[in-house]
Design brief:
- This protein is mainly alpha-helical.
- Among the domains are: 1-46; 179-297, no CATH class.
- Helix content is 71%, strand content 8%.
- It contains 14 helices and three strands.
- Strand 1 (2-10) and strand 2 form a beta hairpin.
Amino acid sequence: MAKFQYEAHDIKSGKTEKGELPANSQAEALARLQEMGLAPIKVEEAKAEPKKGKAKKGKKGKKGKKGAMEFEINLPGLSGTVNEKILTVFTRQLAQLTSAGLPLLSGLTVLSRQEKNPTLKRVLGELAEVIEGGGTFSEGLAQHPKVFNKLFISMVKAGELGGVLEVVLDRLAQFMEKAMRIKGKVKAAMFYPIAVLVVAIAIMAILLIFVIPKFKEVFADLTGKDGLHPFTEFVLDISETVKTNAFGTATGMFAFFATLSFLGKSKYGRFVLDKLALFFPILGPVVEKVAIARFARTLGTLINSGVPILQALNIVKDTSGNSVVA
């Protein structure tokens, strides 16, 4: 009897629990968790023990060697990700092949042969090996989190459990295509305000460096010993600082954006930045509507594909794009 590692929500307490239980199959493990009053988030077969024993022979032994080779291949590329457009095209093609009655393994083999992207081509080959070795499609996808996100993996797993993988792949392809169209519209809508902001900053820099310093002598002759207005002196001081210390100004701006980037990597910093983004003039309402639309669209797609509501909410939390909305 195999052992399955699980992560699940306790329906009564609302807490997340992790553990391991024996079962003959993943479906049996899911049923036992539900009997225990737990809502499964992730259930996968424990693979630690087989590697110590007989894993050196057969397919699993080859897989261990392949892991070392995979590290050598990925090292120069700096990233193992795949372009969103390429992944969407692959999903649509796989959905069409499976809907036409072609076995999943054959479909992956065909797409792997014609794929031009080296990263996706390698990943498809490894997915085919996992299925040949007796694993499921979702288990193979889970081994490549940089290429396939939680949404993709969970929908495929739900399709496998329900026996409607081809239907789920078609829904997933539709979802990704619609997401790309919406993202394109948002980028087009944001282009104008961003362009205006960039031009305004450029004009301000030109005024501070070249124009305002020439007024300093004029103002000094007009005011004489009475001095300038405090605000005028403030503007002239800024202009003088920018002109005489351009390197320091550039370094300060770089440090500012680097700090924002650093804050965005922490949980609290990400929350603060996302909250500020919602209140930002012009762009704030756009950010809010995009996050809510993504939340609703993703949740609807997951539920329609048979993913449990608690697991769907957990996935949507990571894909909404804004921690405040999440």
